[in-house]
Amino acid sequence: MDQAKTPGQVYGKLIGSGVQAAISMNNGLITTVAPVEPEQLNTGTEELWIAPGLVDLQVNGFGGYDVNLAGVPMEDRVEAIKNMTHELLKMGTTSFCPTIITAGYEQIMDSMTAVRLACESDPLVDRCVLGIHLEGPYLSGEDGPRGAHPKEHIKDPDWQEFLHWNEAAGGKIRMVTLAPERAGAVQMIRKLVSSGILVCIGHTAATHDQITAAVDAGAAMSTHLGNGAHPLLPRHPNYIWSQLAEDRLICGIIADGHHLHPSVVKVMARAKQGRIVLVSDAVHLAGMPPGKYTTHVGGEVELLPSGRLQTSANPLLLAGSAASLLDCVAGYSQFTGAELSEAFTLASAKPAELIGEPQLGTIATNRWADLILFAITPETRKIEVRAVIKRGETVYSTSTR
Ligand SMILES: [Zn+2]
Question: Do residues 46 and 122 both lie within one domain?
Answer without folding.
Answer: no
